[in-house]
Structure formats: C-alpha cells, structure tokens
Amino acid sequence: MISTTESAKPKIAHDLKNRVYLFADSYKEFLGDSKSLSSSVRNSMREALGGKGAGLAEMTASGVNVPPGLTILTSVCREYYDNDKKMPKGLFEEVVSVLKHVEQAVDRKLGDVGKPLLVSVRSGAKFSMPGMMDTILNLGLNDATVEGLVKMTNNERFAWDSYRRFIQMYSNVVLDIHKDKFEDLLDDKKDELGVKSDTDLKAADLKELVKEYKELVQKNSGKPFPQDTQEQLAGAIEAVFRSWNNSRAIYYRNLNKIDHTLGTAVTVQAMVFGNLDDESGTGVCFTRNPSTGEKLLYGEYLVNAQGEDVVAGIRTPHKIAEMKKEMSKVYDELLATTAKLEKHYRDMQDIEFTIEHGCLFILQTRTGKRTAASAVRIAVEMVNDKIISEDEGLNRVEPIQLNQLLLPSFDQKDKDVAKKEGRLLATGLNASPGAAIGQIVFDPTESERMAAKGDKVILFRVETCPDDIHGIVPAQGVVTSRGGMTSHAAVVARGMGKPCVAGCEMLKIDLAKEEMTVGKQTFRKGEIVSIDGSTGEIFKGHIPTNEPELSEHFKTLLQWADKKRVLGVRANADTPEDAKVARDFGAQGIGLCRTEHMFMDQDRLPAVQEMIMAETLDERKKALAKLLPMQKQDFIGIFREMRGLPVTIRLLDPPLHEFLPKLEHLIEEVATQRAKGAKPAQLREKETLLRKVSELKESNPMMGLRGCRLGLLYPEINEMQVRAIFEAAVAIKKEGLAVEPEIMIPLVGHVNELKFAREMLEKVAKDVMEKEKTQVEYKFGTMIEVPRACVTADEIAQYAEFFSFGTNDLTQMTFGYSRDDAEGKFLQRYLEGIDVNGTKHKVLNQNPFENLDQNGVGKLMKIAVEYGLQTRPKLKLGICGEHGGDPSSIAFAHQLGLTYVSCSPFRVPVARLAAAQASISSEERDK
C-alpha cells in the first residue's frame, strides 16, 4: 500500500462545503458567479471530482443527455487511507441523502421492489488511468428487485441477465472471488445447452445460472450474496477506494509518474441499459482516430449489450460507421453530440455511450489517449483550424512521445499476439527506446564480426563497459542483466539511438557457455529475439517493426517550437555520423564530444594502451604521436558536419585503467599461462600488463586520477588532443568553412586546476594557429560536476568562458551514490517504497539520474550560475548530462537561465519541444 502521507497532499484551489455532490451541483459550486470555467478552475474540478466526475458535471451543465448521479470527492479517498482503510464517519449517510435527489430525478428508488433504481459505481482519478481501478454495474439488484425490474421493463431475460452480471462483478471486485470461476459456470451452462453465445441463453437458463452463482459465493466467502442494497452500495464504494492501491494501479502510476497521494473520486450513477432490447446498445468512440489523428469518428459498439461486453472481447463489436445503417437516428445524434463535446473541450474526446430503447445517453467523456503520430497531427490541425493557439498546440504533445516517431517500433497488436503465444520472455528496465530484432550474441567481438557479414545481432551482456563499444556500435540493440537507467549500456545506447533493455535480472547470462536462461528456457548464440527498449520487454522470435516516417505535421510542430523557445538545443555527439544525425534533427551545435569514445575504437586501442604502458615521457609521446592524426581526422569530420556551429570537446575524462583489460581477467590469464608453461616472452608481456593494471587500480575510480587531474600530471595527453583539435579547426577554416571549437576541461574542483590546465593548453592552441598563420575563434571552459566547483564558481569563472553542467557526476557526488551500484542495489526500493511499521513509504519520488534533483543538485547549479555570472556576465551556460533530454530538467534549465541543453542526437526534437513548453510555462507564470 502507498501511504497518502508520504508527500504533501494535493491542495484544491477551491473551498468545498460537502464531500458528496450531484453532478449538476458540483459544476455550479465551481462555476460560482463566472460565466465559464477557467483552465485553473477546471483543473481544480479534476483534482476534487476526478476526471470522470468533472466531465459528467460539465456535460450535465452543458445540456448533454447524461444519466444523473453523484460524485464522492478524491479527498475522501485520502481520508479513507488516513483512517486505516475505514469509511470516514458520516460519509455513507451523506451519500444516501444526496442519492435521494437522483432517485427523484428518475422516479426510481434503490432497493424498491416496484421501481428499483440500479446504479453503477466507478472510480475516477484526476489523471485518466483506464482499466486500472474497479467498476461495478447494476448495483441494487437482489432476489426481490430483480422481479421488480422484470415488471418495469417487461423483459424477463434482460432482468436476470443484469442480475447475473452484477453478482459476478460485485463478487469479483468486493468479495475478491475471481471472475474466472463465474466464467467457468457460464461456459458450462452454454455447453450443457449446446449454445455458443451468451445472448442465446433464455431467462430460465439465466435464473438457474444466478442460483449457481449465489452458491459459488456462499462456498467461497462463507456468506450469502448480500441482499441489502445499502450494504451493496457501501461495499462497492469501499472497493473502489481500495482499488486505488491495487498492484496494477500502483504500477500504472509509477510508469506515468502520477502522484500516489491524489486518490480517486467515486461516481454513483443511475444505470441506463444497453442490453434492454435490440433498440439498445453500448459503445466507445473517439472524435478523431487515436492512432492516426484523422478527423473522423472512430470507435465500436454492440447492440443489446452492456459496456463490459465491448471491452471484454466476449462478442465482436461493430465499427461505429455501421451504426448509420442499424440506428440512423441515433447515429446522427451521436455525431452531433460528439462534435459538440470536442468543440466544448477543444480537444479529441474519448466518449462512452449507451443507447436505451433508442435514446442516447453519454456516460463519460475525457481527453482521449493517443499515439505520438496522432498527438502531433491533432495538435497541428486544431491550430490550423483555429480551434487552439500555437502555444496550446505545442502543449498538446508530450515531448517524450516524439521518441516513438524517431525510432523503429513494434505494433501493439503484434506484441499482444506474441504475449498470448507465451513468447514474452522477460521484462527489464526500458533504458533506451526503439525496437530491434536479431540473433543473440554474447561477445562484443563476435557482434562486430557477425554484423560485418550483414547479420543483425542483439548483444547480451551481464553489464557493459567501455571495452565493449566495438560490439555495441554494430548491434541492433543491447540487453544487460545488471545496471540501471543510466548505466554504461543505457547511456551509450541512447546516444546512438539504439534500443536497450537494462537490469533484466530474470536473465541468467553465462558468457563462457554463450547461453542464457529465463526460468526453465535456455537460449544460445544465434537464436532470434525481439526487444522493445520503450517498454523493457524481450520476446522470443521475430516481431515485425514499423520504420519511422517524419510527417509534415511533425516538421510544422517543431518549427513552431523553434520560434517559441529561448533555450538553445545542442547534441552529445562523438563521431561525424552522430554529428550529422544531430544536425538533421535540428541541433544548434555539439554540447559534448567525448574524446574517450574515440580512443575505444579497436584500430586505435593498441596505441592507447601503448601510451598507458609507456615507462618514459619519450615513449608516451611516441605513442601519442600515433594517436594525433587519428584524433585530427575525427575532429575534421565533426567540424565539417557541423558547418560552423559550436562544438564543445571534452578532453580525456575517464581513468586510464578503463582502456586496459580488467584486473581479475589478467590475474586469471597469468595464472593459467604459468600453469601451462607459456613461453617466457609471452608470460612477461602479460605480467607487465598485470603490474600496470594493479598500479592503476583505485578504490574509488570516480573520485580518483581522471579528468583535469590526469591532464595536469600527464599534460602531454591533453596537449596532443588540443593540438589535434586546432590542427583540424585550421584545416577546416582553410577549406573556407566556419569553425567554432570549445575546449572543455573536465572535473575541475579548484580554480588552480583550471588556471594551470588552461595556461598549458592555450599555449598549444596559439602555437598551432601561429604556425599555420590562421586564427580560429575558440573558447576554454569547464564541466561543472564537483559540488565544490559550484560553490566556488565565481573563482572558476575567471578562467572559464563557459560552464557545462555534467549532471550525471554532479548527481552522484551530491547524493554520495555510485550510480550503477545504487540502481542495482537500493534505488529501486527507494522509489517503490520501504516498509515503515507496516506501511510503504517512498524515500525518493523520482530517480535523480533520470529527473534532475532540483532541491539538491538544482540548488548547487543555481549557486554556480549566480556566482559565475557575477564574475563573467557573458558566461555561456549549458547542461550536457543525460538530463539534457529530460523535459522536466529542461524546464528547470530554462528557469535557471541557461544558454542551452545538450542531449543525445535522437532526443534533439524532444528537447526542442520541451524547451518551447518551458518558455510557454514561464510566460504564463509572469502574467
């Protein structure tokens, strides 16, 4: 259970006198003396009444034909949990009192034998959570009222079918008796009678089925099915409150970052019956196609059915267009009503309706869920039709949704089929979006070899490290059994636009045997799997992929975003290929070029290792001389692709041991060679390597000899890099192209580190330009990733022309978390909640490596910005960590007044839209 006291409870911006409201009365309460609802008041309605209750209230007030009912506020749900899951005192009496007005409106009464009122009891949170909580229909039926319903409707079969449905639903939701037990009895009855469809059962058959259902309830609960209708109602209301914290609802809220403290409202609404006769029916429709965005009524309906029949798949529904033939008058009314609702709400609507004996009732309207492609098209077309403004259009698309449009994806229907076939193997963390199919491969070198032959492969590793880069690059996707959302595999895959499933602990990977086990299944190298990095799912076999196509609507939306945003958007790119992708997606420069990734190429790794193994300065310089032309060509390619846009190049950052074999592997190799009597020269080579790796070993590498510290102790390394950068820049300028390099010195914690490093490196830059008789515009700056750098930023800014916040390391050092260890050991528990005296409480509401910790890390950044600008008013400010592509972190960057954010190339469109939304929010706050 999630405690409602774990964070500040929602504050409703409207004082409410009661806990229970009729639909019409709740609208009047919020409207007050105004002529229409403002967006802030409408938001308060949703917070208090839930989306469903707010929608029903507004529809009732606008004249749409809505069955009358009442809403119990979301605050009551919070009160229920604070009261140790007991109904608040006096609540039920208040419900009964307000329900009398519903009874008068329909001239029926709950529990009355002559004119029984039947009601539905449904959930409704502020944010739509379709199917996550519980619903009960036909409440109010018992052995007496069912006979009254027979007389009132003159339809015995309908009455007993409704009673049968009610017992099953109520028993499942309230009494916790699994619905399959009732379905089994229903199937047995149909088999016994030799019929296929529920509708083939006659009234007498349904009476017998009701009797069997009641016997099942008695057997499983030890009590008879409740006949007191008020007891039924109280049980149903409490069950809906309980369903707020069922496992699927908690999972859905975690997935969609919905606050667990909001609570759900409860609506109690007079039933209308789609299963009354052949002039009745029920359905669900959207005012536009939720998959494509096409402006056309889209949906399904069933004749002589109740709502659950449409969604349960018991009968095959008809397409909504077919209603024009079957019920032409109702169809015309539905078209007019849905158009009216879309015009009123100024957005695509998801509408539930019931037809009772030819009369149309609207049961619910809400903003419709939609795909990314649909969201973009609807937003642009509504702006073009002057229904909404450009700003509103930009706010209608979730930035993170754009990932769906930029990468291959699986069709949900194909995945559903695979799940039904039992092909879903495991689910890990959705570390990098996209879909991929390929042969299983466990070794990075094998991945490289197979991909070179044209094979598509998925690289499976326990975890990845920089050594694996040559196998990650050619792979279609990556899977790890350890590591989190910001592990090496996740970060690298996101940067390359490859799908990645990380931390999938269900997989037991044996690298030596080149096989993995999932439960009782074993998979070997070469077998085909499909992975969905957007959901973290891994499937056996092949699932077809949909290739991305960028529409004109997409381009239009991003053009509007570029007009609106203040923040610049750059990309993290380490190769000319990455740079081209970034520029094609609209990046305004490179905010982070990581030179260590260039060193990992298999062709140059031997020279890197030769440089590390060097015993003298001359030996080291000799090895660096081999790397210089390679680095120069790297930078020429990147500068050429960026065509004069700024390129921020981070000098070597990781510790040197990352470029060498792992210590434990070397110890094993040396021991094996000794035991087998290897040749002395061969053994000496391995022993020398082992000594070097042991010498470089550190207890805490993240805080050890790396970044600027490495550059100060071994200046020749950074000098070679700067020489390569400026030789490349000069070469590009001589081609007649503009070039703007920015040299970033990493991990500075003390002003002297930057001061001395810049003195040495700027001399190299000037020497190159003087020798080539060509001047290049350049900047020197630093990556702010050490807390001390933030609080001494005024000193550091004396020698830095730009700050780039490395929020990944800054988060690690601020929290004192080792990122990979935290995500593998305790961070997930912190996010899900830990047990405190029998109640789950979250330690953290969000993963600080995914969403910037604004209260801690953010305060350090604010200090750095303020201090830095005091010393250097024109200081350029950016973010180059993973947070540069996170919409909430981008909004914070806008508030801080940063110059730009930098993210992986495939997240550039996401950042462009998020930056525009941040500008819109800022303008609204300033009004």
What does this structure look like?
The structure is a single chain. The strands form 7 sheets. This protein has an 8-stranded mixed β-sheet with strand order 12-22-21-14-15-16-17-13, with helices on one face. An 8-stranded parallel barrel has the order 24-25-26-27-28-29-32-33, surrounded by 6 helices. The chain is of the alpha/beta class and 927 residues long. α6 runs parallel beside α8 (203-221), α22 packs parallel to α25 and α29 (715-734) packs across α30. A hairpin with a 2-residue loop joins β19 and β20 (521-524). It contains 38 helices and 33 strands.
C-alpha end-to-end distance: 41 Å
Largest sheet: 8 strands, mixed
- Count all strands and give the number: 33
Shape: elongated
Q: Mind telling me the C-alpha Rg?
A: 32 Å
Topology:
Layout: E1 20-22, H1 23-31, H2 39-62, E2 69-72, H3 74-82, H4 91-106, E3 119-125, E4 135-139, H5 145-153, H6 156-173, H7 179-193, H8 203-221, H9 229-243, H10 247-256, E5 264-270, E6 281-286, E7 298-303, H11 307-312, E8 318-319, H12 323-326, H13 328-345, E9 349-356, E10 359-367, H14 372-384, H15 390-395, H16 403-406, E11 409-410, H17 412-420, E12 424-427, E13 429-432, E14 435-441, H18 444-452, E15 457-461, H19 469-472, E16 477-480, H20 488-496, E17 500-502, E18 507-510, E19 515-518, E20 521-524, E21 528-532, E22 537-540, E23 545-546, H21 552-564, E24 568-572, H22 576-584, E25 590-594, H23 595-599, H24 605-613, H25 617-642, E26 646-650, H26 663-676, H27 680-696, H28 707-713, H29 715-734, E27 740-745, H30 751-772, E28 779-784, H31 787-791, H32 793-796, E29 802-805, H33 807-815, H34 819-825, H35 827-832, E30 834-836, E31 839-841, H36 857-871, E32 876-879, H37 887-896, E33 900-903, H38 908-926
Parallel strand pairs: 14-15, 15-16, 16-17, 24-25, 24-33, 25-26, 26-27, 27-28, 28-29, 29-32, 32-33
Antiparallel strand pairs: 1-2, 2-5, 3-4, 3-5, 6-7, 6-9, 7-8, 9-10, 11-23, 12-22, 13-17, 14-21, 18-19, 19-20, 21-22, 30-31
Helix pairs in contact: 1-2, 5-6, 6-8, 7-8, 14-21, 21-38, 22-25, 24-25, 25-29, 26-27, 28-29, 28-30, 29-30, 37-38
